[in-house]
Design a protein that fits this description.
By secondary structure, this protein is an alpha/beta fold. The protein has two domains: 219 residues, Rossmann fold; 81 residues, Alpha-Beta Plaits. Helices cover 33% and strands 27% of the residues. The strands form three sheets. A six-stranded mixed β-sheet has the order 6-7-8-3-9-10, with helices on both faces. It has a four-stranded antiparallel β-sheet with strand order 2-1-4-5. Strands 12-13-11-14 form a four-stranded antiparallel β-sheet, with no helix packed on it. Helix 3 runs parallel beside helix 5. The mean pLDDT is 86.
Length: 304
């Protein structure tokens, strides 16, 4: 659906926001673009949406070039920006109706009602934007972006400043859009948002794409699994005969943590438990934990 090739953006002061970025985004997928502040996420989105001009490289949307076929590409894209800019003195209904008209779409009250209902905005349709809460204003931005029935939706930090309940509602809306065939590109600082929604994850840092991978495969390949044993009695130190397991002893000396690779044929847990018994170390309880996408992301950025 989107093909980005060798995209570079250097601003007038010499700052290079993007450096030879190449990326393909499939039709109908939710793609999460992750990266620290200043990594180039918003610049990349703004170039694809026609807001910022690239220094070099090319972008096509559904086979249309964003510069040569500007009208065709923009009509296929909806953008929910970070900024909360909206028509403060206009009603929610008129804001969405006007946005639809900008793209030459015939009036469709039925479609706009469907969008507003899906975002729990229907009862606010006659309310002017300045009277809405921050979370509701964010929803209006999404409704406005969807008003012209785009095939691609960019969500740039869509749930920033939104409470947990509204955030979950938005996640449901995004999932429903994907089910309808809309391609969704999401940037977020809420890593659990990407973990719950995304089909694929891309990580950008210092203007370069450092990784693109299926979310599940990424978490499987790079994720760590840990076995935590709660000891019956505090342990002064890990016995030498257990050093090969690289066990970590907690500060209070009541827990032992064993980190292992789930992809290996043998995890070593059975042997560990046997060797603990031989060393006279007994435990009350044990539990396992899996690396989150956030931990994987932080490790990736640190390494690169």
């Amino acid at each position: 659906m989107i093909s980005i090739n060798g995209l570079t953006k250097t601003y007038a002061g010499g700052f290079k926001a993007l450096n030879e970025v190449s990326l393909d985004i499939d039709r109908g997928e939710i793609f999460a673009l992750l990266g620290p502040n200043g990594a180039g996420k918003t610049t990349l989105i703004n170039i694809v949406c026609g807001i910022v001009n690239a220094t070099s490289g090319s972008v096509s949307v559904d086979g249309f070039d964003i510069q040569r076929d500007f009208r065709q590409t923009r009509s296929r894209i909806g953008l929910v920006p970070q900024e909360m800019a909206s028509e403060s003195f206009e009603t929610v209904w008129n804001t969405c109706r006007f946005s639809r008209g900008l793209f030459g779409k015939a009036a469709s009250p039925e479609y706009l009602e469907k969008v507003l209902r899906s975002l729990s905005l229907w009862d606010k349709k006659d309310t002017i934007s300045m009277q809405l809460s921050g979370g509701m204003k964010r929803r209006v931005l999404i409704a406005k972006a969807l008003a012209h029935e785009p095939e691609v939706l960019f969500l740039d930090e869509p749930t920033a400043g939104v409470d947990v309940e509204l955030r979950q509602d938005m996640w449901n809306v995004v999932s429903a859009l994907r089910d309808q065939g809309v391609t969704v590109i999401l940037t977020t600082h809420y890593i659990e948002e990407a973990e719950q929604l995304a089909d694929r994850v891309g990580v950008i840092n210092h203007g370069e794409i450092i990784l693109v991978e299926q979310k599940d495969k990424l978490m499987h390949d790079l994720g760590k699994k840990q076995l935590v044993l709660n000891l019956q009695a505090p342990l002064a130190e890990v016995p030498l005969q257990l050093k090969d397991y690289q066990l970590e002893l907690s500060e209070d000396r009541n827990d032992l943590t064993y980190t292992y690779d789930t992809a290996r044929e043998r995890t070593g847990i059975t042997a560990l438990l046997s060797d603990l018994g031989e060393a006279g170390i007994h435990f009350n309880d044990l539990h396992t934990s899996q690396s989150s996408l956030e931990e994987i992301f932080v490790d990736l950025v640190k390494k690169r």
